[in-house]
Design a protein that fits this description.
single chain, mainly alpha, 4 helices, elongated
Length: 169
């Protein structure tokens, strides 16, 4: 048996692709969130020019469409940055072995609140910028926000179990 090594024990992250840790899928997602945050920031900075190009509406035109689109997209971009920041924090916790922590629960609740805030904003915006996609965004962020509150409670319960288990060891 000398020179022969036993196969590694199957556990978390073993298999076709490692999911957790520094070289796993969770780390790739954390890096991707960094890139998305930079991209979202660049898009927000470019909005004063890109809104005019994409919508063919100029500042001061009748109906204030340029201004309406600019406000909707700036607010959406700001909340998207906040959501991405919290998501990155969650992935950082996962990669640091702290997935079931009070910080993760707090971040899930914050993302849920940010999604519901965005949903409410789009609900109001439907009456100002009457476009069908506004309703779709409202519904999507409402559902996602509510689901995140359920996940936050699940993680909260798992965190309590983990803390109790850690105290008994």
């Amino acid at each position: 048996s000398e020179g022969r090594r036993a196969p590694p024990a199957k556990g978390r992250g073993d298999g076709p692709m490692k999911c957790l840790g520094r070289h796993g899928l969770s780390w790739i997602i954390e890096v991707a969130l960094d890139v998305l945050m930079l991209l979202a920031l660049a898009l927000m900075v470019s909005l004063p020019w890109s809104v005019e190009i994409v919508t063919e509406k100029s500042p001061g035109m009748p109906g204030c469409w340029y201004e309406k689109y600019l406000i909707v997209l700036l607010f959406s971009g700001l909340l998207a940055e906040m959501i991405l920041w919290q998501g990155r924090g969650i992935m950082h916790n996962v990669n640091g072995g702290r997935a079931f922590s009070r910080d993760t629960v707090r971040r899930l609740r914050l993302i849920g609140t940010e999604c519901l805030t965005l949903a409410l904003f789009y609900f109001v915006a439907v009456f100002v910028v009457t476009k069908f996609f506004m309703v779709v965004v409202f519904v999507a962020f409402s559902v996602v926000g509510l689901i995140l509150f359920v996940f936050a409670e699940l993680f909260s319960e798992a965190t309590r179990y983990k803390e109790e288990n850690d105290m008994t060891i």
